[in-house]
Amino acid sequence: MIVWCFIMSEINNENLESPQSAKRVEISEKKRIRFEWLDQFRGIVIILFIVQTFAYAFSMSPGSGIAPILPPMVNHGYKYVNYPGMPDIITLVDIGQQIFIFLVGFMQAFTVMKRFQKTDSKGRILIHILFRAVLVWLLAVLHVFIADGFSAWRSMVYGGTLANIAWAGLAAGLVALLVKKGDHRFWIGFGLMICTTIVWFMIDPMEPYVPLFSVDFLEEILPTLGHIEIGIIASATAGWIFSPDGSVNENNWKRRILPLALAFMVLSYLSWFIQWTDHHKVNMSLSTMAIGFSSLMIFTFYKMEQVGFRAPILTPLGKNMLLVFLLSMVVNELVYMEMILIPFGLIGNSIWYGPILDMLLAGVIPTLLMWALVWPLHRFNIILKLSWPTR
To answer: Mutual orientation of helices 182-203 and 216-241 as an angle, nearest 10°?
Structure first.
């Protein structure tokens, strides 16, 4: 059932019924080539996700006796420093999930815009948004149930990675549907961020300050709200970058995107003095860091395409980003890692070729494996996605 829902594909159709159909396909092809910079950016995020999965699995916190096997850049900071009363190190991977959420919100808003172009009604677009969110939640239930059973119901509903993707995508889609102007979307997301920051400061301030009150449920739900904020602000950036006709608004790179990126990088530093950046909390300092970095990277890949530079391996991974994300959970984590690497003890060899073997087994091979699985789809220009049929 989920396979049918997932395989709503975009395939080049050579049997055109009319000149109007030919024109629509031609326009679609132009847009797809033009926006390859988005696929390139998504491909980088997917590679980070794949590598950090192995970095996380084969390293423990300090004092455990198991040393991390991959560079700190591709592992969570708390794997290296995690002392009571002291802030954790923050690495690029610590904002990896938030960058992924940013892309989810960005692409959700872009999808809403495209469906408006196809003369879909608001009702049909709303069905599409809800349809996608429900399917992601079903995937979250399956993933968590296989790992921990129904005892981990919080991860199914709001705490797990897939559940957060569902909530952020739902919020970004609804805001994009109801609020057309990017500026208005931004202030909705940023206003929510201010509110959650105030709550965080009251229930979990930096030492030696004492919390004003303690509510366990708030500490559990606030990270999900943090991801919703990121998704909404990402929908605002999509509204700034794309014009209603689907073209790129060149002026807003300078007027909106770059100022947002730099301002949020500064705000990330300043908000550190209110509450330490923490990968698990998704507070203001972490969220603004992820939004700022994502905005800069989107601009970078856009300019890279303009000068004719691209990395061929990134496009197949980015074009089917959600599929690669799900395949990696199954193929890389459950099959490759759990059935091959761990049982046979191939990771963490102490002999002289150990580091090179670790690099290949935990970085190069799983990435190439995912690329090999989705390259045929890229070759025939097939995009698998969670989608409700258009008119």
So the answer is: 160
